[in-house]
Amino acid sequence: EPRPAAPFPGMPRIDFSSISVPGTSNQQQTRPSRPSPPDSTTSPQGLDNPAMLREMLLSNPHELSLLKERNPPLAEALLSGDLAKFSKVLLEQQQERARREQERIRLFSADPFDLDAQAKIEEDIRQQNIEENMTIADRKS
Fold it and tell me: Which of 51, 50, 56, 42 is nearest to 14 (CA)?
C-alpha cells in the first residue's frame, strides 16, 4: 500500500511515539518522564544558527518581549546589533544549559537515599513547575 503524501511537504516528520500520555497504562511509575537533552540533530530549525535565530526574534515582537522579560542578557546582546556578541552570549547560555542537564541526569541516576541529590531533584522539579506556569500564563494573556 503506498504511503499517503505528507500534508506539509518540506516540513520534517516528528516522531511522537516516545511521548507518554498521562493516565495511560504504559506510563512510567518510577520517576517522572523527562525529555532527553537536545543535540544538534534534533534541535528545531534555526536554533543552532545564531543569525537565523536573531532574525526570527527581531521579526516577532511578542517573542522579543518575552526574551526581554525572561532573559535580559540575551535580549541586550540581541538588541546591541552585534551578531558576534549575540552569538557569544547564546553559546555561553547553551553550554550552561547543557551542563545543568548533565548534572540533572547525574542526580537522577544517583543513590535514591542521597539526601543532597533528592534536595537538588526537588528544586529542579520546583523550577520546572514555575517555568511551566509562566508558559501557561503567557498563552492565556
Answer: 42
